[in-house]
Specification:
Blueprint (H helix, E strand, L loop, with lengths): L8 H7 L12 E3 L3 E3 L8 E3 L5 E8 L3 E8 L7 E4 L11 E4 L5 E4 L5 E4 L9 E4 L5 E4 L5 E4 L7 E2 L3 E4 L3 E5 L7 E8 L5 E6 L6 E7 L7 E4 L5 E4 L5 E6 L8 E7 L5 E7 L13 E6 L3 H4 L14 E5 L2 E5 L4 E3 L9 E3 L3 E7 L1 E3 L3 E5 L4 H9 L6 E5 L2 E5 L6 E3 L6 E7 L12 H16 L4 H31 L6 E2 L2 H7 L6 E4 L3 E8 L5 E8 L6 H13 L9 E7 L2 E7 L6 H5 L7 H21 L3 E3 L8 E3 L5 E3 L6 E3 L19 H4 L7 H16 L16 H10 L11 H4 L2 H14 L10 H9 L14 H4 L1
Parallel strand pairs: 36-40
Antiparallel strand pairs: 1-10, 2-7, 3-4, 4-5, 5-6, 7-8, 8-9, 10-11, 11-12, 13-22, 14-19, 15-16, 16-17, 17-18, 19-20, 20-21, 22-23, 23-24, 25-26, 27-28, 29-35, 30-34, 31-33, 32-33, 32-35, 37-38, 38-39, 39-41, 40-41, 42-45, 43-44
Enzyme class: transferase
EC number: 2.7.11.1
Membrane topology: Single-pass type I membrane protein
Length: about 775
Amino acid sequence: MACPLINLPFFFLFMFLPFSTLAQTSKNISLGSSLTALNDDNSSSWTSPSGDFAFGFQRIGKDGFLLAIWFDKIKDKTIVWSANGDNLVPGGSKVELSNGGEFMLNDATGKRIWSAQSIGLGVAYASMLDTGNFVLADRSSSNVWDSFGEPTDTILPAQILNQNDKLFARYTATNYSRGRFMFSLQSDGNLTIYTTKFPLETNNFAYYATSTNTGFQVIFNQSGYLYLTARNGSVLNMISSNTISTQNFYHKVTLEHDGALRHSAHPKTAASSAGSPMAWSPLTSEPSNICLTIEGDAGSGACGYNSLCSYNDEGPTCQCPYGYTLIDPNDVLKGCKQNFSFEFREMQNTEWSGGGYEQFTPVDEDWCRQNCFDDCFCAVAIFKNGECEKKRIPLSNGRMDPTVGGKALIKVRKDNYTLIPEVPNTKKKDRSTLILIGSVLLSSSGFLNLILLLTTYLIVFRIAYRKAKLIQPYRVISDMNLRHFTYEELKNATNEFEEELGRGTSAIVFKGVLAPDNGKSVAVKCLVARVGENDLEFKAEVSAIGRTNHRNLVQLLGFCYEGEHQMLVYEFMSNGSLASFLFGELRPSWCQRRQIALGIARGLLYLHEECNRKIVHCDIKPQNILLDDSFAARISDFGLAKLLKIDQTLTTTGIRGTKGYVAPEWLNRLPITAKVDIYSYGILLLEIIFCRKHFEAAAEDEDQMILADWAYDCYKQNNLHQLFKNDHEAMHDIKKMEKYVMIAIWCIQEDPSLRPTMKKVALMLEGTVEVSAPPDPCSFISSIL
């Protein structure tokens, strides 16, 4: 059925404007030209005549360089096409248009990574066009190859997709390798969005379809309309209409990493944005809620196997159900695994004809094992001749015969000996012996029998009491796979608590060495007894940390809970606290500080949104950030943590935290949310940026005593260099420093609703989301002092 919009005159005027009538100017790139990826971020590029687009190398974090096309006039340099998303190249790599007309990407050793598949010979030059299309042309200016013909995840105005053309979503917002969703105009004319049998490219389940069988082309025209046409040019389906001018706004349609096909617009200039923020704004999204749209009996869904997907204004959020943890805390899309572990047992020439539900080919045996391991429904994987078939129970019609071939990889649960320690059997023997002695003596005299009976009863009662006393605490936290240490073990490990690492009002931390674990150093936190509070604090900290697993959190290894001896055993962080690192004699490098700031943000994002239960830390400060062997930031001290239920966004509690980092809502006795951590992070981020404490009574100028006030004043007056007088490295990166200051000011807004979420903070730090000018954070002096 044709779209009714085609009857509108204005739609005819703009939609069917021939692309050929739009003037295309270009700067020709001659044969023999090349670009080199430079580690100092000064790599050159080939730009379009208007400067809107550029072709060249983009650095992707610390992972390497991406050969890409991007919007060059906007701050975030949004990438719209890439050649080597699955294989980033190091510095020194080169893209070259050879004298023979080959267009290729070689790494620093000269190894061929990618090349344009040109049809025939005769390439005379290349050009970056104002449409965002990079072309190789012959002497008659006919295109031999163009990037529009090999799209990745994005299409631009003036671009057309033909039958069998595909878009593949990138894996994450910052990982440009091929992801788990595919947009395709099929040969039968149906336009669909699929989940894929990741990491294979074959389609799995369609969660969006136009249900047409005459579709011929998907057109994204110069006026910003995206639609499906038949072979005769009639409009079959309007995918996305446009309400924003393409004259003043850039447009793109991207199959996002979260599986949504999203049409977005970005103001071209500040003057044309009419007050709009300088960022991409979504116009339409298909589907509107991917969590509810993806169905089916097979596939990993929007969030990976065994996970749960929930949707909000910022997109889908992935988390694990109770009893499961993330397979990889740094990659939530890999899904969740059960808290107990499995292993595989092989059976040669074995198979079952029933129970199969997914097949993959061609793959190797290790891949087959891992895929079955990650899927809790998979009970057996049959691997044979490069094909992996997963089967769920009940298995039916099994057979074992040399003619079958291949092997069955049977997943079995490992025995778990590391949970609650058994009470030694010797105690049962002791009790039996005592009862036997008492029975023998009973035959001597009545008086003696009575005395011995009472004595025996008291001893047996004492043994039972001590056993109950030891067992009961384990039940409190028996659902966590943590190692239980005895008090004697930790006493020996710490050499009778000899080396003190630090102390606070509620705990003293000692260094220890676990001999059975190859001399592994640990930090043993001994809680100081406080009547009526200590048990609750112990349970709160173990509950909070015991279920978390993230590279930017200190890992809890085990516990001791024997009467008054209540201790927590953590990884030992060899480089101490962030406070010592920041405020010592030697100033850490700006690169190190950036990585630390991002690591803390990712750790808080995990606590707030990605772990099984939302956790508000409540005491973010430099002393509670530890640094591991590689100076990666690890958040510690969950003793004050406040857990929120899945459907809970705020809570009320007594004031917590540390003076100077406490959000205003604590002082005003208002309900608190995760935004209290955002405020504390903002103060901490300022300290990281400037390597000074948030309050210095001995400052040279009274206006410089409170760091947050001073930083905002300098930012407002465009005078940030005053804060970096002794930091030459920062002075050379003043634009990025300014961005970080802006992020910090957003975080310390007095109104919690103005503070960004930690997810947005992390995206701003990564450069994925634009940072707009922050408002005055108002008067927060009272909360600082």
